[in-house]
Amino acid sequence: MRADRLMAILLLLQQHEQLTAADVARELEVSERTARRDFDALAMAGVPVYSIQGRGGGWRLVGGARTDLSGLTASEARALFLVAGPASAATPAVKAALRKLVRALPEPFRVQAEAAASSLVMDPQRWGSGRVEHRPPPRFLDELQDAVIRGVQVRLGYVDSNGAETERTIHPLGIVAKGPSWYLVCNTDAGRRTFRIDRVSSADPTGDPVHRPDEFDLAESWREIADEVERRRTPLEIQATCTPDGIARLRMVLGDRLEVGRSTTDDRIEVVIRGYNEYALAGELAGLVEWLDVTGPTGVRNRLASIGNALVERYG
Length: 316
Prior knowledge:
Elements: H1 2-15, H2 21-28, H3 32-44, E1 49-52, E2 58-61, H4 74-83, H5 92-103, H6 107-117, H7 141-150, E3 152-159, E4 165-178, E5 181-188, E6 191-196, E7 200-209, H8 218-233, E8 236-242, H9 247-254, E9 258-263, E10 269-275, H10 278-285, E11 292-296, H11 298-315
Helix pairs in contact: 1-3, 1-6, 2-3, 4-6, 10-11
Organism: Amycolatopsis cihanbeyliensis
Domain HTH deoR-type: 2-67
GO molecular function: DNA binding; DNA-binding transcription factor activity
């Protein structure tokens, strides 16, 4: 990863007035000989570095020169180049800007940066599942994002899941991409609301300033919204105990629908599991009886017993 090292050396030179090969070798865990070759490569690439010979010598940037990457670590820069690749979900404008950044790099950086931009294929489809639906960005995404950035209210037309169209003035706070869908988080006269942007029928900025709550954090707000949606999608909770070696299996099968509690006196672990209804949840848990003992509600236990009886009757 030579380009990675060269970028790291350039960033180190901007942090320190002078560096020796020994300094770089110690910082990047390479040999001093490798560090000296890297300094020579920077100079040959046109980076304004020069060496001072003798005691107290080392390498410096001419006139304290700096690069546009001064705020990035090497790994962060490569992450940006990955975003510019054809598999990325970034907008064309973002990709174009990042490719310009790639072209502005010195030659040793550019080769691997361009390689990074084409090194990743994103396949969100799970093994054995149907095709993943890829949707183009919704119609009013740019207008709503601009309103969020400028901090102006919007007169929003919206069509709900039943086909009813309404209009209201909203205070846009942020935009979230969830899988193939985009959501607008905003304040309204009725409180905090979330709208699917593909259902927006009109978006007209009013010019009036947004009233943004103090210390509002979009990521934290979205976590609260997502948790509430998950609770509505999985309203049923069951109680059970699990063997310690079964917790990892439950996490793999149930994900965020599993809540792990305290240990019991018989060396088992209390758990709470959320599901859509008794029938669906019993079907999921039937294959976990080796580790799991459902203690309630009674309806789920009865359905598990029914599944067991049916299996015995059919397979003996």
